[in-house]
Amino acid sequence: MRELKITPIKNGTVIDHITSGFALEVLRIIGANNLDKESTVSVALHVRSRRMGWKDIVKVENMELSPQKVNAIALLSPTATISMIHDFKVIEKRPVALPDRFSGVLKCPNPNCITNKGEPVEPEFEVVRRRPMALRCLFCDRYVDDFLPHLNTR
Amino acid sequence: MGLKGRDLVSIKDLTKDEIESIISASRKHIPVAEGKRSSNLLDGKLLALAFFEPSTRTRLSFETAMQRLGGRTITIADPAVSSVSKGETLSDTVRMLSGYADAIVLRHPNEGASRLASQVAEKPVINAGDGAGQHPTQTLLDLATMDEHFDTLSGLKVVLMGDLRYGRTVHSLAYALALFGAHLVLTSPPALRIPEHIRADLHAIGAEIQEEQDLRKAVHDADVLYVTRIQKERFGDLAEYARVSSGYRLDPKILDEVKPSFIVMHPLPRVAEIPSEVDTSTHAAYFRQAFLAVPVRMALLSLILTGHPGPGGGS
User: Fold this and answer.
1) How far apart, in whole angstroms, are the C-alpha atoms of residue B274 and residue B252?
2) Sign of torsion over alpha carbons B18, B12, B104, B229
3) 8 Å CB contact of B89 and A141
4) Within-domain flag for A6
5) Residues B46-66: pLDDT tens digits?
6) For residue B82, how far is the Cα from the chain centroid?
7) Chain B, 122-141: which have a CB under 8 Å from a chain A CB?
8) Which of B146, B119, B128 is nearest to B20 (CA)?
9) Hey, where are the domains in chain B?
10) Mean pLDDT, to the nearest integer, of B188-207?
11) Which CATH number characterizes residue A44's domain?
12) Are residues A41 and A111 in the same domain?
């Protein structure tokens, strides 16, 4: 018999199949500290998963994710799925998918990159490899495979 | 081919055919570069030289190239006395220059500066070195030097020696040589080996790459030895710098065993990598390489500013 560890939400977003151990990073990305005071945020760490062995789950009431936040989650945990809940029903469920080029998610880890020098420009990256994920800054050409410390978690 | 109005930020912005066209056009500019003929191809054109970092030969060679073709230049040579010192962004400076001049040559201490400039400028931007990043016109003149000497760029065996990790010029050069089917031999201190992702890039375009720590073995059967400076600023420990750099010095005796057509190249300035006694050897090509900076930049400016390759016509 399955035990229900997190209660259902009426309206909001469920981020499932998060790589085990990364839920707290996901909370930072979605800005869980700044949510509507009436919203409940549920976090399940280290949940059994048939597909993944172990996974994390985050449920947030009354919130939809911006494309930038979905991209940031995709960088962190490419296996994650996002379900939109309306009136307790899943109205849309999709895997996160990072586009080949994206901006607004990461700062360039190269401190000498022009995007870190106060210019009015958004850092932009292209995906050079997906498994494991590797990116390239479209300005300074820096190859980036350790991007977690550089995620925008505003 | 249409280079007119194009930016040149990275050597990857050019196809193999475009690289060949620039090199072939540069040969026709040599008599003008030497002052034996005159040209007014760029009469009425104005080139902005925005140098936010010290540079002697790059700035002078662009200035010479423009003036030999009858064009003029405006220069930011000392950012300390320009509006940059008042906190103006590069984006604003470039927009302003783009209103004044027909093209902008940019040298900047930050990587990616030229990519940004090319996005905000309405005129072509030529990257003359951005931090530890790209320096595509150096690559073009390196290739032109090899092409002039061997009359081909195909299938050369090129030894790249020195700082292969941070070296500004060497990654672009390795990429371009790989396009022409070169066999690359890499020789560097262990701490300054070529980064794995650059090696993967080179493999992806079919480069044949070999590593060889023993320079004598590396140059055996090779056509070119390309030496780069090991930069002091990359080492926290000066004793370590002294140890590594002293080990990367070209022993002139090695040249007794190379092919007669073998050449030694260096982007200059050199410190101690090549002792001065090599200068008079028939194998020394680095001063010719420095001279070719002018006709190569003449060809590039002609193509970007007018769409014509220069003396002799054709396109």
Assistant:
1) 8
2) negative
3) no
4) no
5) 999 999 988 888 999 999 999
6) 27
7) 130-134
8) B146
9) 11-134+293-306, 137-289
10) 87
11) 3.30.70.140
12) no
Tell me how many domains chain A contains.
Answer: 2
Chain segment A83-95, per-residue pLDDT in tens: 999 999 999 999 9
pLDDT at residue number B242? 82
A88/A134 same-domain check:
no
- ipTM value: 0.90
Looking at beta carbons, which residues of chain B come within 8 Å of A101?
none
Interface A-B, measured as beta-carbon pairs within 8 A, has a size of: 56
Given a cut of 90, whether residue B168 has pLDDT beyond it is no
Chain A interface mutation, best of B116, B134, B135, B231, highest count of A Cβ atoms under 10 Å: B116
Confidence of residue B291 (pLDDT cuts 50, 70, 90): very high
Pick from A134, A139, A143: CB nearest B112: A139
pLDDT tens digits along A31-83: 887 777 788 899 999 999 998 999 999 999 998 889 889 999 999 999 999 99
The answer to whether the B11-134+293-306 and B137-289 domains have the same CATH topology is: yes
Same domain, A89 and A113: no
The parent domain of residue A115 ranges over: 101-150
pLDDT recorded at residue A70? 93
pLDDT tens digits, one per residue of A113-147: 999 999 999 999 999 988 889 999 999 988 899 88
Q: Are residues A32 and A84 in the same domain?
A: yes
Shared domain for A72 and A133, answered yes or no, is no
Q: Is the pLDDT of residue A4 over 80?
A: no
**Which of B112, B119, B197 shows the shortest C-beta gap to A113?**
B112
CA atoms within 13 A on the CB side of B176: 31
Q: Mind telling me how many Å the CA of A142 is from chain B's nearest CA? A: 9
Of chain A residues 97-126, which have a CB less than 8 A from chain B? 108, 110, 112-115, 117-121
Least confident of A133-137, B140-144, B222-226: A133-137
Min Cα separation A112/chain B (Å): 5
**Which of 146-205 (B) contact A at CB < 8 A?**
195, 197
Query: Which residues of chain B does A135 touch, with a Cβ-Cβ cutoff of 8 Å?
Result: none
Coil vs helix vs strand at B10: coil
Among residues A75, A95, A115, which one ends one of the domains?
A: A95
**The architecture CATH gives domain B137-289:** 3-Layer(aba) Sandwich (3.40)
Q: Are residues A75 and A111 in the same domain?
A: no
Fold annotation for B11-134+293-306: Rossmann fold (3.40.50)
pLDDT attached to residue B83: 62
Closest B-chain CA to A140: B112
CB atoms within 10 A of CB A18: 28
Same domain for A45 and A75, yes or no, is yes
CA-CA-CA-CA torsion sign (B190, B192, B197, B198):
negative
The DSSP string of A32-100 is GGGS-TT--EEEEEEEEETTTEEEEEEEEET----HHHHHHHHHH-TT-EEEEEETTEEEEEEE----S
